[in-house]
Amino acid sequence: MNDLYSSQRAMRNMRKAAMQRGVVAILDVGSSKIVCLILRFDGTDKLTEGDGIGSLAGQTGFRVIGAATTRSRGVRFGEISAMSETERAIRTALQSAQKMAQIRVDHVIACFSGAEPRSYGLDGSVEIENTVVSEQDVARVLSSCDVPDFGPGREVLHAQPVNFALDHRSGLNDPRGQIGQQLNTDMHMLTVDAAAIQNLAHCVRRCDLELAGVASSAYVSGISALVEDEQELGAACIDMGGGATSVSIFMKKHMIFADAVRMGGDHVTSDISMGLQVPMTTAERIKTVNGGVVATGMDDRDMIDIGGDTGDWDHDRRQVSRAELIGIMRPRVEEILEDVRARLDAAGFDHLASQQIVLTGGGSQIPGLDGLASKILGQQVRLGRPLRVHGLPGATTGPGFSSAVGLCLFAAHPQDEWWDFEILENYQGRSFKRAIKWFRDNW
Q1: Higher-confidence residue: 15 or 95?
Q2: Which domains does the chain have, with CATH numbers?
Q3: Domain named SHS2: which ranges (predicted)?
Q4: What are the pLDDT digits (tens) for 368-419?
Q5: What is the 3-state secondary structure (H, E, C) of the chain?
């Protein structure tokens, strides 16, 4: 276990210290862009005493005072591949955001989309000691969950109870203070590749910052792109980024499954670059301005100027029809959606009562994508945009910023803190203490 990451409690203490100071930075490390937002907390005392349990419990209390976006470098498939290049890109975004906010930040909360996430479902059950459920009873039932052997080189990123049941009553968000005999819980645990976490933490330290929290973009994108009813009734969030496509399923306002496909919008751009024999920058411009996945009769006559700087007059004045461009883009988009469909089928998404699917992320802005996704994923597909956050600039309100906005909400109200309890001093069970220590160190 990495010394820095093995204790997420230490990260949360850093986050609390940053909130007491009033300022914390948000860092979305993606394959195509790096987004840095600086948050100012106005009512720190109100944030730690929320009225509800859940990712959307009280979204007030902070505003965005600085924002910057820069082209990502050294990141492939959502993971750092060139440390020095990623460090320079993070420094560039951070300095621009600090200049806009006119303040220096020392603590940052980061999210990423790669690292091969894997989901596990755990359950536990205990008898209530004094009829009324206390924090100690909740700690005991969480510790009673059997932790699976997730293998070497993996880290627990999220471990959250998604449901409590007290006797015959299920679907409880917070059982504390209620009367019963037996307490049961269902927990969702998400593990990721440890090397990706360690590289991200090391890169943040090289930028003279303290890592005050880390989250999966699949989780934070769902927080911002799904409306409250979708999180409650059940929905899937598909975040189509540049190097990876994150998949998450929410139910009862909790994430119950997460996965990732190692393909994204950059792969579509690469196909255009190879198919038309143009540089990646030109391919990205063509995809953004003229791209699509559904061809019509007009597209055969709609010619696109490719352009170029080679000096060859004939080569630089080439044209291609939009139908040919769609013919290059559609197979890759279909491949990504088919892989997403396989992930949803493996998670049992078909058995949910509500099968709403929300597409978000920069790759979701391809014209006609929602119609194609309806044919492959299911009929209930819509394009999602992130929730509005106080002070967020208009340029950062598009689907490509869902994970950054969701990370703002996660920073203000991390769900993990509600279930972080101390070990019982008078309890004599050694295995109990070991289990509680595992949850305390890994949450």
Answers
A1: 95
A2: 118-192 (3.30.1490.110), 271-323 (no CATH)
A3: 24-225
A4: 888 888 888 877 888 888 887 787 877 778 888 888 888 888 887 765 544 5
A5: CCCCCCCHHHHHHHHHHHHHHCEEEEEEECCCEEEEEEEEECCHHHHCCCCCCCCCCCCCCEEEEEEEEEECCCEECCEECCHHHHHHHHHHHHHHHHHHHCCCCCEEEEEECCCCCEEEEEEEEEECCCCECCHHHHHHHHHCCCCCCCCCCEEEEEEEEEEEEECCEEEECCCCCCECCEEEEEEEEEEEEHHHHHHHHHHHHHCCCEEEEEEEHHHHHHHHHCCHHHHHHCEEEEEECCCCEEEEEEECCEEEEEEEECCCHHHHHHHHHHHHCCCHHHHHHHHHHHCCCCCCHHHHCCEEECCCCCCCHHHHCCEEEHHHHHHHHHHHHHHHHHHHHHHHHHCCHHHCCCCEEEEECHHHHCCCHHHHHHHHCCCCEEECCCCCCCCCCHHHCCHHHHHHHHHHHHHHCCHHHHHCCCCCCCCCCHHHHHHHHHHHHHC
pTM of the model: 0.82
